Amino acid sequence: MELFDLMAEHGHEQLVFWSEPLFGYKGIIAIHDTTLGPALGGTRFWNYASEADAIVDALRLSRGMTYKAAIAGLSLGGGKSVIIGDPNTPNREMVFRSHGRAVDSLKGRYITAEDVGTSPDDMEFVQMETEHVVGVVGGSGDPSPVTAYGVYRGIKACAAFRYGDESLAGRHVAVQGVGHVGYYLCRDLAAEGAKLTVSDIDPDRVRRIVEEFGATAVQSDAIYDVEADVFAPCALGAVVNDDTLGRFHFDIVAGAANNQLARAEHGQSLEQKGVLYAPDYVINAGGLINVYGELERWSPERAKWKAGEIYGTLLRIFERARSESVSTSVAADRLAEARIMDSRQLQRSFL
Q: What total of structural domains would you count in the chain?
């Protein structure tokens, strides 16, 4: 693996490795672009198959955070960190204090928060070593409800564009993954009268959604075969791929998961199938908006209002995609890149 070639491929600025073997800490921090401000992105704790997989994940996720912040209109750059190890380990304090030291070494160029495999309690340990952390207890709190609200508003925008009516009453939504964000999304959808079909690897989560919202449950892999108006992937990424595309019977793909397209060209594949795709980093930006609100001392109401703007952002993307005859994923990238390029004429990168 040629690290500098990997970084150059998408213009990454910095890649940091930090190890504290005594505490079992192996961390990687990727900073993609700081044109708009300091890089912000959560910490993912995952048992990666290899160190190479962890590096690629950090690079890919940090680039996504740059685009997410840019298209959401936030004064932030994109970064991400990953910790290689067992996310279920009970010995968390020293692992996350080690991570806090790694974050602090960057002197504010990177700000971290929770992500897959981490929690506000873990961020408390990080905060013992650095001030460059958000999403701690007593801060902006769990970002899941705001993330879910942004996805809900995004699905309504998709319905408005596809059907000419934003109402989700009676619409069938297949939700893959009903953890924190998926749960709150199902709550919002059910409140409007949507019909829900759900799947998750955790049967207790599925049971809760079925009992509380009257959803229908299917096995994890069977979610791709459901005939529904909307497919809302809210688990891990790469669910739109060569194997699943032929099984889709959806009008819309719009969910909270990151990196839903296994490859960039799958955005065009969805377009060719007549499926309207809400680019993941646009529709799931509510979590980033929530923690940005913590930095800017926004009220919870203002953060939720800002997440609601995802509705209008998606409509602009859909119109641009139609006018330029490109996929919605390409149109979203162009909008984000335009904001970054314009900003480079106004200021230096964050130092």
A: 2
Q: Tell me the catalytic residues.
A: 80
Do 25 and 111 belong to one domain?
Answer: yes
Instruction: List C-alpha distances in Å: 37 to 69, 79, 237.
Output: 10, 11, 26
pLDDT digits over 40-68, tens only? Answer: 999 999 999 999 999 999 999 999 999 99
pTM: 0.88
Whichever domain contains 43, its CATH number is 3.40.50.10860
The model's pLDDT over 272-325, given as tens digits with 9 standing for 90+, comes to 999 999 999 999 999 999 989 989 989 989 999 999 999 999 999 999 999 999
> Which of these three, 127, 152, 169, is where a domain ends?
127
CA distances for 84 relative to 53, 65, 184, 321, angstroms? 10, 20, 29, 38
Query: Are β-strands 25-33 and 14-20 bridged in parallel, bridged antiparallel, or unpaired?
Result: antiparallel
The predicted-structure confidence for 259-268, as pLDDT tens digits, reads as follows: 899 999 999 9
Secondary structure of the chain: what % helix, strand, coil (to 5)? 45, 15, 35
Structural domain span for residue 88: 3-63+76-127
- Say if 106 falls within a structural domain: yes
Task: Answer whether residue 11 is part of any domain.
Answer: yes
DSSP state of 88: T
Same domain flag for 109 and 197: no
Sorting pLDDT into bands at 50, 70 and 90, what band is 222? very high
pLDDT for 348 beyond 70: no
Examine the pLDDT at 207 and tell me if it is beyond 90. Answer: yes
- Give the DSSP H or E segment for 133: none
53 & 169 share domain: no
Tokens 């602090």: give the residue.
104
Close Cβ partners of 156 (under 8 Å, ≥ 6 residues apart):
166, 167, 168, 311
